[in-house]
Amino acid sequence: DQQNLWEVLGVVRGAEVEAIGAAYVALRRRFEPQRVAALGLAELVGEADRLCTRLDEARSMLGDPAGRLRYEALLDRKIPPGQAEPSL
Q1: Which helix (H) or strand (E) holds 47?
Q2: Most buried residue among 7, 12, 30, 70 by CB atoms closer than 10 A?
């Protein structure tokens, strides 16, 4: 939760949409909760689920040009996303 969305995906700020998509797909496959459970790591399924939710958020926000601009504005102003003004 302390990482920004680029860090969650493991890409640099300003990465192209294609790089964001590729990072998302690779990480989502790796940490899919059902896959984690199938590997015998049932105790990590909750964490994998939380990570996948964060990955989904990152792809959704950074893969959309308007969403990316809003997110960058929030980071640059250091406003937590949950406290964003509704007009952003």
Answers
A1: helix 45-62
A2: 70
Helix axes 65-77 and 45-62, enclosed angle (nearest 10) = 100
pLDDT tens-digit profile of 15-48? 999 999 999 999 999 999 999 999 999 999 999 9
Q: How many CB atoms lie within 10 A of CB 8?
A: 19
Residue 9 CA: distances (Å) to CA of 42, 46, 85, 86: 23, 19, 25, 26
Report the distance separating Cα 46 and Cα 51, nearest Å: 9
Look up residue 64 and give its DSSP letter.
S
Is the overall model pTM greater than 0.70, yes or no? Answer: yes
Cβ partners under 8 Å of residue 68, min gap 6: 61, 62
